[in-house]
């Protein structure tokens, strides 16, 4: 049984925060007590740094993996940033525009979308919010869902982690994968895991390789790593790390990939799993 420090990797949406972007007090408590016990805790998320507000950092995260592995930061030091080139960004933006798909750029400096995004993406964004448990979505606008969004006509940048776009049908996703075969094309949604959006990033970007980079940087063995997640994109890291924990609100596929299934994010799932694994005091309990 191991007694050394662990490296803990937390997905954010549906894991660290709930589907209305609220940080449960129990989750903040879990992170604080784990760090006090000598463990290191990192966000491991599809979000870019611009989407990580101060109140999340304030719980004491040691760093983050962002953009699903495109960006790695440890104690304020950037270890990796695999962003799209300006030429790649221009190609993707041009193709999405020709196909009539509304999109936004995700960079550490901010989220950027064309002015039409405010109304053309509204139906998908309301469906996204509803799928994450938000009520009264008919009154929401883009700024309610993505307060970081900057509407602009300047949409070719060289610091973009990934580009997300609203799917009109699954055929858009297939076409994007054919068009950008040298890049990584994925999909995402909300609770229920329906594909509402596609995204395009560099093929090298993934959570597993980013985790390995951080472990090597810190000299921590893979068996001393613990990953928490709720979405399909998290399956790789749940299977890769020493222990993989699925949130109760995750899909059945995610739960099947995990060593341990905890409660929903809203039901103190993170704290209960930290207690179960002995991360806040004493040695870890066995996982069955």
Describe this structure in words.
The chain is an alpha/beta fold and 288 residues long. Helices cover 31% and strands 22% of the residues. It is built from 11 helices and 14 strands. It has helices at 25-36, 54-57, 86-99, 117-120, 122-131, 142-145, 170-179, 207-218, 235-240, 252-257, 269-276, and strands spanning 7-10, 40-44, 63-66, 71-74, 77-81, 103-107, 110-113, 149-151, 160-166, 183-188, 197-202, 225-229, 243-246, 260-261. The strands form 2 sheets. The chain has an 8-stranded mixed β-sheet with strand order 5-4-3-2-1-12-13-14. Strand 10 (183-188) and strand 11 (197-202) form a beta hairpin. Helix 1 (25-36) runs parallel beside helix 11 (269-276). The longest helix has 14 residues, at 86-99. The two termini are 14 Å apart. The model has no long low-confidence stretch (mean pLDDT 90).
Helix content: 25-40%
Question: How do the SSEs run, as a string of H and E?
Answer: EHEHEEEHEEHHHEEHEEHEHEHEH
Q: How many helices does DSSP assign?
A: 11
Overall structural class, as computed from helix and strand content, comes to alpha/beta
* Alpha-carbon distance between the two ends: 14 Å
- Give the uncertain stretches in residue-range form: none
Mean pLDDT over all positions: 90
Largest sheet: 8 strands, mixed
Form type: globular
For the secondary structure, the number of strands is 14
Q: In percent, how much strand structure appears in the residues?
A: 15-25%
Radius of gyration: 18 Å
With strands numbered from the N-terminus, the spatial order across the biggest sheet is 5-4-3-2-1-12-13-14
């Amino acid at each position: 049984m191991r007694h050394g420090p662990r490296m803990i990797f937390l997905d954010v949406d549906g894991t660290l925060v709930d589907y209305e972007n609220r940080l449960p007090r129990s989750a903040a408590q879990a992170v604080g007590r784990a760090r006090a016990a000598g463990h290191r805790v990192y966000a491991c998320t599809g979000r870019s740094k611009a989407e990580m507000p101060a109140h999340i950092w304030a719980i004491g995260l040691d760093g983050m993996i962002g953009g699903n592995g495109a960006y790695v930061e440890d104690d304020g030091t950037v270890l990796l940033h695999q962003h799209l080139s300006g030429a790649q960004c221009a190609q993707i933006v041009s193709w999405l525009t020709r196909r009539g798909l509304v999109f936004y750029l995700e960079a550490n400096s901010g989220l950027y979308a064309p002015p039409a995004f405010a109304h053309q993406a509204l139906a998908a964004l309301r469906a996204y919010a509803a799928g994450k448990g938000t009520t009264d979505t008919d009154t929401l606008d883009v700024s309610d869902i993505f307060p970081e969004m900057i509407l602009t006509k300047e949409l070719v940048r060289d610091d973009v982690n990934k580009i997300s776009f609203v799917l009109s049908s699954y055929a858009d996703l297939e076409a994007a994968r054919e068009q950008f075969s040298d890049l990584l094309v994925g999909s995402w949604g909300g609770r229920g895991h329906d594909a509402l959006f596609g995204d395009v990033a560099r093929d090298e970007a993934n959570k597993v390789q980013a985790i390995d980079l951080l472990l090597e940087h810190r000299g921590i063995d893979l068996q001393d790593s613990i990953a928490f997640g709720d979405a399909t994109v998290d399956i790789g890291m749940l299977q890769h790390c020493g222990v993989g924990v699925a949130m109760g609100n995750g899909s059945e596929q995610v739960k099947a990939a995990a060593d341990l299934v905890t409660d929903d994010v809203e039901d103190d799932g993170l704290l209960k799993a930290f207690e179960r694994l002995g991360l806040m005091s004493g040695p870890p309990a066995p996982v069955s």
